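Sample intake sheet
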Amino acid sequence: MPDGFSAGDTAFVLVSAALVMVMTPGLAFFYGGMVRAKSTLNMLAMSFLSLGIVSVLWVLYGYSLSFGPDAGAGLIGNLDFLGMQGIGLNDLAGTIPVTAFSAFQLMFAIITPALISGAIADRAKFTAWGLFVALWVTVVYFPVAHWVFFFDGGNGGWLGDRNGVIDFAGGTAVHINAGVAGLALCLVLGRRIGFRKDPMRPHSLPLVMLGSGLLWFGWFGFNAGSALAANGVAAMALINTQVATGAALIGWLIYEKLRHGAFTTLGAASGAVAGLVAITPACGSVSPLGAVAIGLVAGAACAAAISLKYRFGFDDSLDVVGVHAVGGAIGSLLVGLFATGTVGQTAKGLFYGGGFEQLGKQAMGVAVVAVYSFVLSWLLAKGIDRTIGFRVVEEVEVAGIDQAEHAESAYDFSALGSGLGRSSAAPAPATAAPAATAVAAVAKSTEKTEVDAR
């Protein structure tokens, strides 16, 4: 192997890449549990489709556009690595093979469009979604990844390398990017039928908790792996990720108890994700105490932010805007306050004697990515909607998108009404309601309570 190669760092990054990959199925479970039963498979499939499409595009041209030599002004990479050509087994990125670095960054590219899917749950055509993913990563994610993540001694991406915007693991490139795109899409597609009138409660909170747990687990690879070496910065990023997530969970639950009078499992899961989002840009530049502060602020702020969709009337189905756009912005901005200058970055935040300079840089990064992502996402979604149509017809949405788009259903309720434990020859009493009807009645009653509370 060439000089400078580290087997330990390489193993660490490869394991981290696998952890980040697990986050996309985790996201699928998280989102799948939050929708109604009739949309479960579609929600799972939207995340899995991103795994397929983005993996292929990354090899064809995505890596080259994101991390190829800069084509000018730090805006986009050139096509030197088209088809991953020109990359040898012994070529290094720091102390690891370029191929290991590419695999790690691929997992970021996969999960970012998958995050967007939660904003348009229950109502998007699967073919339209696939086309959007392919176009969006090409014209939005790959350029923004170049701006933020490509470093080349001052000749790399214009936000991170040339202007000093700190984004250790993707607060701007991943979360603000996806959250704002989600806002654009839900505005183009419009509200779900029955929004604010019919109950739309999560159908499986255990699935939500499972998904959030997998996300939390995988996020250690997401954040610590972004050090690209098994070193002290990676260790600090990991501990910051853990404590910020725990603090955000607490912050969300406190807000929820004060505002709504109960500690919910959905709130605990959502608070954890909000903390993971917020610490992502900051985990390599703040202390554990700073991470706790970021988590507490993000947990309470994101819990409050999800009510904006009811105030402003946009239907962000699974709170992508409130958690990812808001959480990503909070974490990115608070770097300008809590950066110590002694972790993985030398820049200091306001609370550590750095003045307002870094805060101003962070605000610029947040604003630029948000505006670029919203405008391009809205144009892409509008173009798809006016050509092949982005939204399913009303009958499909009401009946359930799983059957229409996938010819499957997540659950077989027919067994519930067939009298489990009873001889197949013995008919059910004429007065007995099918179990499925009883389950639906209980769910409807419970969901109505939530709607009335709004």
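Comment: The chain has 15 helices and two strands. The longest strand covers residues 92-93.
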